[in-house]
Amino acid sequence: MKNILFLILPLLFLTSCSNSNSKYAKNLATAKQLFKLHGEENIDEQLKLVSKDIKVELPFYGSDIVGYETYTSMLKGYHDAFDDINYTAELWLPGTDSLGVLNGSVRTYGKWTGIQVATGKQLNLKGYWYFGFDDQGLLNAQGDFFDAGGMLNAVYPKNLVYATMEVLPGKTDQVMEILNSKTGLPATRAYDGCLSVELTFNEENNTIYILENWESNDKFNSYINWRQNEDATIGNIAPFLKGGIDGLKIIQPNSNYMSY
Fold first, then answer.
1. Which helix or strand (DSSP H or E) is residue 33 part of?
2. pTM for the structure as a whole
3. Residue 6: inside a domain
4. Is 260 inside any structural domain?
């Protein structure tokens, strides 16, 4: 029995060591402080806790890993967009590496609340976040996992622009090829201030309908000025439209957006 105990005790000691990380408590405090400062909209103090080499995983569909500058802009954007920001954690948890070994990183599940400044709508956003830290204890990795599209639809303002194109019989394929090209609607979506672009085609009246959402009417006006004066796309489409350029109709500006 004594021999068995002598064998078991070292194993228990080794197991307890592998299931702890001496940096976790410090990193947990930093993660909590980051979210607290976010609620206080104190970006200067937040960035003191962040490495310039940070890599951030955004919650938007198809997004790539971004770095320090984009991360900073994202923080400022949230501070500008919301008042009374507050995070309520359901859990704070230690994180592991790819082998399941605790590495001092931090995970949390919880909910952000706040008031969207432009609309006055209440934010109620549940999500999951992870934090990684370098040897100096600075945040060098963050991942955000929540319904970003749902958040935008629920509380952010919308500046909707409607466009119609009456297509000549038999010319739909040519117009769609231009719209789907790199310089077509993908360029619209990539333009500064464009939040979304949707298209549908009605076969009964041979008309294409385009719905765009912009951060502001001013940003849309900058875009349409570029399209009309510097870009050739509208001119390339015009020969395939009923009445030429008059076959393109844009309804803008629009206001008083409401959802029910």
1. helix 24-39
2. 0.72
3. no
4. no
Which amino acid is it at 54?
Answer: I
H or E element, residue 226: helix 217-229
- Based on the number of CB atoms within 10 Å of its own CB, is 165 exposed (0-12), middle (13-18) or buried (19 or more)? buried
Residue 24 shares a structural domain with residue 149: yes
Note down the domain range covering 225: 159-251
pLDDT digits (tens, 9 = 90+) for 21-30: 899 999 999 9
Q: Are 33 and 94 in contact (CB under 8 A)?
A: no
List of the chain residues with pLDDT < 50: 5-18
Q: Which two tokens stand for residue 222?
A: 């900058």
For 184, list phi and psi in degrees, rounded to 5. Answer: -85, -130
Query: pLDDT digit string (tens) for 101-110?
Result: 999 999 999 9
